[in-house]
Amino acid sequence: MPVSTRAQQANAAGGQPWSSAAPASAPGHDGGVRREILTNHHHGLKEKMRALTLFYEQHKQQLASSQGAGARSRRSIQYAAGAMGRDENGKNAEEDVGAKRHNAVVAPVSEVAVLRENMAPPEERAPPPKSSNNVIVFSRPADPVEKENVAHGGIAMSCPVSKPAPGLPAPVARKLSLGGGVAARLKAVGEVGTGNTDAAGSRILVFVRLRPMSRKEKEAGSRSCVKIVNKKDVYLTEFASETDYLRLKRVRGRHFCFDSSFPDTTTQAEVYSTTTSDLVEGVLQGRNGTVFCYGATGAGKTYTMLGTMENPGVMVLAIKDLFAKVRQRSHEGNHSIQLSYLEVYNETVRDLLSPGRPLLLREDKQGTVAAGLTHYRAYSTDEVMKLLQQGNQNRTTEPTRVNETSSRSHAILQVIVEYRSMDGGSIVTRVGKLSLIDLAGSERALATDQRTQRSIEGANINRSLLALSSCINALVEGKKHIPYRNSKLTQLLKDSLGGSCNTVMIANISPSNLSFGETQNTLHWADRAKEIKTKALTTANEEVLKVSDCETDQAKLVLELQKENSELRQQLARQQQKLLTVQAQTLASNASPQQSPAPSAQISTPCSTQRKVKRSILAGNCFNTPDSKRPAADNALVRDLQRKVRTMEAEIEKMKREHLLQLKQKDEFIRDLINRKASNDPEAATVERRVVTRASVRKAQKDAAAAGELKSPSHRFTSPAPTAKKRTFWDIGGNSPSTLAVHGRKTRSHVAAETPKVTSMLLQPGFARQRAIH
Ligand SMILES: Nc1ncnc2c1ncn2[C@@H]1O[C@H](COP(=O)(O)OP(=O)(O)OP(=O)(O)O)[C@@H](O)[C@H]1O
After folding, report:
1. Which ranges in the chain are annotated with CATH 3.40.850.10?
2. Is the pLDDT of residue 181 over 70?
3. Which residue lies with its CA nearest to atom 15 of ligand 1?
4. Ligand 1: which residues within 6 Å by Cβ?
5. Class of domain 203-214+261-537 as given by CATH
6. Which residue's CA is the nearest one to ligand 1's atom 10?
7. Of 20, 153, 44, the residue nearest 98 (C-alpha)
8. Which controlled-vocabulary keywords does the entry list (predicted)?
9. Which of 65, 212, 294, 675 has the most neighbouring CB atoms within 10 Å?
10. ipTM score of the complex?
């Protein structure tokens, strides 16, 4: 018996092109529709109106073409004809789609006829169902803004269907008409960081990363409900619950399309190079960039951002890349790199590198800043790694039922790169800021824990994520007022979401059908975020300061000296690193097998070469025998190493002395130059202040050196956080359980002290998290 679908009836009544053509081309094709058309008195009228409109359009175009120049008129006629042709084609295509849709409903149900984009992708198809009852048709809604919670062919969706973001192909049937979608997306991806955006601004790029199924999930018998196809399409399928008899054996699903989607086999390096490497390049050119991970608790945000010792994440790879690029370009000018690391926990902002009182946010011309946040100047990747590790130790963490080392706070690492160079008669200064954000997991109260402190944390996390989604909604809808002030997180993200910034969102999802709700929610917001446009980034944060001829030489000299200084500091840091390595080797070769962990604890920097050296020595089996019985060859090796250490120590001492002397001379010279300049030119006062500040920092080092204890780079940077200081609320250690019970807040160092067996990647040197997916 012929069936008329709701879409057909709506189209017949509303005069959709394909439905109006149907009765003429296929007489008697659908009794229901024809009866409705016959009884609809407006049907003929609408057809006439459409013909008249078409005629009027053609007439207008002919008129325009006759008025224009010959060649131009020819073009416009061709265009009009082309446009009409396209229109007809489009119509035909739509008719075709409509007919197919109709067939899918009325024809005997077969797998080929009914599989739609919303269902599992072709590769994942289940064997053809025997009975038509098992197959559900996912019809496309007639109106793109129609809410999905209207059932379509038996599917009940809970999220609104969004319009496609500009530059992205729309999901579902719109794929049919977008041959160039991939190219457009790739172009969009290629534009990041280069600032090659249109005047209206650039779009937030959204990526999805699927993590592997965890051991727990496998044990719970969960199935994979996510499939990624072509590295961009995400198919989400919900399997009906066995106790839900009404919807037994039915599946519901959804299809999303993102700038790129990463299957569970994707490496950290691939994720970094696709999502963030262009932003790093942009930052070096004076543009701001932000990467943030969003997703449910345990979905892999921290893994993506920090990673493990073996598989470092985006933060670590970005820092390494940044320093490598700066080193390559050291001849072009002087780069300075500063970083800060903060967390938003229970709506308070805390400095992770120098824990103390909560910080206040204030707005200034640079955007929203945390007053009193410490900015460290870093000269090498290893220094940054140490700072990152130190910050992670202070980050609030708490095992939840879903994730044993769940991050209970949003962490923001900001790296500011300042570049200065002489260009003819002017000083060019460029400042770029890279923000790397690991958000706390969105979660359901029951999915995590219901203990008081946890539920307060959960409520605050959800509140700030809700504020984030309100901002995303307001930005997508083009509202004038964006509610950034609703939470600390959105205040801090203001620049990244609505300012001049290249922004990347990585949505992390779990494959397990037990997390279907969370995954759908994450994908929904990621899909929505695709539509946010940030402000145009046509110009970099660049300042050009003209200097008069007589000052040019002095300014050049100052820059050269500053560059040389920073190179010397880098050299010093490298030498100290080498010394540490050799010392560790010596210790290892002197130690017995039982003592061997000691030196490894001393090497806190995640340096792969160190590990290799250490491993090769361990493989050499040279410490299994006591000193007396040690073979002569081993003793010779030890002596050789010791000799090397002594030589290197002497060399480093010599270099230190030389560097200090050079630094002292150069500092004095710079100060002298600036003083002279300042006395002639009041404008130079700013420069003077800056240099004097640096010099004052160095003075402390000089004093220390004079007292015979030169501080290592790590000392230099960790010194603002005094080691022996009055204890504050945040500093109370893991041996104060009462305080923990009262405040209920734990940092990763507390967790490390209390639960040595639960190894978080954030607790390991270099963030190595041993508890990988099993
Ligand atoms: N791509 C991946 N490959 C291997 N293991 C992963 C991957 N993603 C996540 N994991 C593992 O899954 C577990 C949870 O990941 P992670 O802690 O990063 O989640 P999260 O989203 O940060 O959670 P929360 O919001 O609670 O902090 C970890 O054990 C991590 O090692």
Report:
1. 203-214+261-537
2. no
3. 300
4. 211-212, 214, 295, 297-303, 403, 405-407, 440-441, 508, 769, 771-773
5. alpha beta
6. 300
7. 20
8. ATP-binding, Coiled coil, Microtubule, Motor protein, Nucleotide-binding
9. 294
10. 0.98
